[in-house]
Predict the structure.
Amino acid sequence: MELLRFITPFGVGHFNNKENIQKLKPSYIPRWEDDITWEEDISHLLPVLSDEVWVGLYIDTWSNEGWSVDVGFKFDEYYTKTKKPLKTIFPLLNTTPMFPGKVVTINLLASP
């Protein structure tokens, strides 16, 4: 199950110190950022993330510098008290086959 997906911005951290980087910066961006933080509410996924789960992270980079990632989870307990019917999820497309062919039955909220 994919928790979230996003595209990272170019020009963060060590990229902003490279030679000729100002030529690559779009004119509508006042400066390159030193650090970026993302937050996303995935509280509706709490039933899926109970007990122990394996969380993977995939970052496609075209450099060998790598990434430093810090992931934290904070959930709203409201979702633990709401009973919803069981649903079966069938993967339609899996570009990173960590668990190929696996069918998961979970108690998933219909909407956040």
